[in-house]
Automatic annotation (TrEMBL):
UniProt name for this protein: Cytochrome P450
Homology family: Belongs to the cytochrome P450 family.
Gene3D superfamilies hit by this protein: Cytochrome P450
Origin species: Zhongshania borealis
PROSITE patterns: CYTOCHROME_P450
Keywords: Heme, Iron, Metal-binding, Monooxygenase, Oxidoreductase
């Protein structure tokens, strides 16, 4: 079925050594919509690598469903889609999606999120205090993973004493394709089960001692006058945990890698800390956390010059789209923390948080965490360099780094 001799975008080995930038450029040249085989599953798909086409798919849920086969790019039995994945907001279509999203949205309003800034900054300072005098650290686990996990656990009502357990569960669920992170798909299912049991205990606790946090907002919310079931809550709990933790950890890790690879740009931010917010947009653009999502065509339609049939699998490749030369210029494949200075609407052009009805509801939270962390990291970890083997996660879903030892001089 394939019309181009490219590597399979749904093969985790394609990403085992990091994001394949040049391969994705070839897709964009052949795109904006490319027809592909998947020898691993036998299920062909359309890879959407142009921004205009990705936006169209994302803004037309009646034509491209998140619910029919779920939003996850991997293949799962239909029974799992119907009885498990259907409980999470990311796999819902209108009108149910908007009703459930309305409940969750109250916990992520900009005003509420901004109120967390002092606590987040105190956490970030402690994180840096723990490593800065040593002159070296394993950056992913000791720095990048800390604030996102602590923050989302606090918002969910999970005590900090359980942090390590949730760190392990999250890794096991997300990275089942990587033998260093989990030994089998069964391990991921067991970890999900453990998370569900934990969430159900939180729900029981809320009945006796109501919580004013995300957990409380979900458990107290109603859809068409009916409260969310505990099963729905448990799966939403997992989605928020993974989305709120892993995505931000990934961006912090990848951002640090990029700054180390471009020391002149890092020095620019040391000298001009007021430019860090705009630099974060470029970090988000250049290495998108969640690489791709799925939609299923509900009817025959032409997209990007290709005739898509009802039932076809459509993959939205956010990372490829974030390097779209038609949008970001001929230097789209170059990392440049000053890009926003000549492209003022950069934040609106990136698709790192998606677009349309499924635009990431936690984007404001993620941006705050990224800002706080980089404002603390950049002045304190001076002249950072890789200090050992950098290892990427073998995953076509999450663009993550699993190990990045670094050395540095202390800024203060």
């Amino acid at each position: 079925m394939s019309e181009c001799p490219f590597a399979n975008l749904l093969d985790p080995d394609t990403y085992a050594q990091g994001m394949p930038y040049e391969l994705l450029r070839k897709f964009r040249v052949a795109g904006p919509v490319v027809k592909m085989d998947d020898p691993l599953t036998g299920v062909p798909y359309w890879a959407v690598v142009g921004q205009q086409e990705l936006d169209y798919v994302s803004k037309n849920p009646a034509l491209f469903s998140s619910a029919l086969r779920s939003s996850f790019p991997m293949e799962h039995p239909q029974e799992m889609v119907d009885f498990i994945f259907s409980h999470t907001i990311i796999n819902m279509d209108p009108p149910r999606h908007q009703k459930v999203r309305r409940i969750v949205r109250e916990a992520f309003t900009p005003k509420r999120v901004d109120s967390y800034e002092p606590a987040f900054r105190a956490h970030a300072k402690r994180i840096l205090d723990n490593v800065v005098q040593r002159g070296e650290c394993e950056f992913v686990e000791e720095v990048a993973a800390e604030l996102p996990l602590v923050a989302i656990l606090e918002l969910l009502g999970v005590p900090i004493s359980d942090r390590k357990q949730f760190f392990d569960w999250t890794n096991t669920m997300i990275f089942a394709d990587d033998p260093d992170m989990a030994t089998s798909e069964e391990d991921g299912q067991i970890a999900a089960g453990d998370c569900i049991n934990y969430a159900l205990k939180l729900a029981e606790q809320h009945r006796g001692q109501p919580m004013n946090n995300i957990t409380g907002a979900l458990l107290d919310g109603e859809v068409d006058g009916v409260g969310i079931s505990e099963e729905d809550f448990a799966w939403m709990f997992i989605l928020i945990l993974v989305g709120g933790n892993e995505s931000t950890r990934t961006v912090i890790s990848q951002g640090m890698r990029l700054l180390m690879e471009h020391p002149d740009q890092l020095q620019y931010l040391v000298d001009n800390p007021d430019k860090i917010p705009a630099a974060i947009d470029e970090i988000l653009r250049f290495n998108t956390a969640f690489t791709q999502m799925r939609r299923t065509a509900t009817q025959d339609i032409t997209l990007g010059g290709q005739d898509i049939k009802a039932g076809d699998k459509v993959i939205l490749h956010y990372h490829a789209v974030n390097h779209d030369e038609a949008v970001f210029g001929d230097d789209a494949m170059q990392f440049d923390v000053r890009r926003a200075e000549r492209m003022p609407k950069l934040a609106q052009q990136i698709r790192s948080f998606g677009i349309g009805q499924h635009f990431c509801i936690g984007s404001h939270l993620a941006r705050l965490e990224l800002l706080v962390m980089f404002e603390e990291i950049i002045p304190r970890l001076r002249n950072p360099q890789i200090n050992g083997e950098l290892k990427y996660v073998r995953s076509y879903f999450v663009n993550s780094i699993k190990q990045m030892p670094i050395r540095f001089n202390s800024g203060n």
